[in-house]
Amino acid sequence: MIKIRALLLAGGYATRLYPLTEKLAKPLVSVAGEKIIDRLVKQINEICDEIIVITNDKFYEQFVKWKGDKENIKIINDGALSNDDRLGAIGDIQFVLEKEKINEDMLVIAGDNIFDFNLKDSYGYFKEKEKSVILLKKVDLEQAKKGGVVELDEDSKVVFLEEKSENPKSLLYSIPIYFYKKEDLEKVKKYLKEGNNPDAPGFYLEWLHKNSEVYGYKTEGEWFDIGDFKNLERAEKVFMGK
Description:
With about 240 residues, the chain is an alpha/beta fold. About 30% of the residues lie in helices and about 30% in strands.
């Protein structure tokens, strides 16, 4: 199977996890005895040749130290100094696309994901469809309000996506693991120029599915977004035995 590059988003400041993350980047937090980013890298390496980690100026040196002599990992500093001047996830994607002159398909994944399924099947689906593919999971109402909820047609094409709704129309949730075709990455610049929200990745998908074909891949298994202490504790309990 031909491998692609991955972009791991780690530019946030994780203020909801203070004081734990006040001086420690969230992807470097340990869950069940293993750093979130170490778990992610093992899973990403199954399908990717190179991993680009985009972070901010505050935590850049922490990631450089963590990287050590890992040859297939590149750390990029987006220059943001605080939560107030951060570029946002979509802004960081565009920063990397321009800086690295990327003109190819790419896996984009949030650095605070923790899950127990492999990415080979979803990557195979992406290669089969030859369209951008987002990973989906059924969640409860509490989680559904925190991100993008999705409706699919009979061919698994995304026909509805709404980010951070107070009254979600669906419990099928877009988890922050995205296989993007290069032509859809090229649209990020247009999205930002229109003045759209540069923060959560789901806002771009909400716009993209109206301007391109996007497909959904339903996942099975455990998944957590380590966005707050409640989810951190849940993940710790679930993954302690794995």
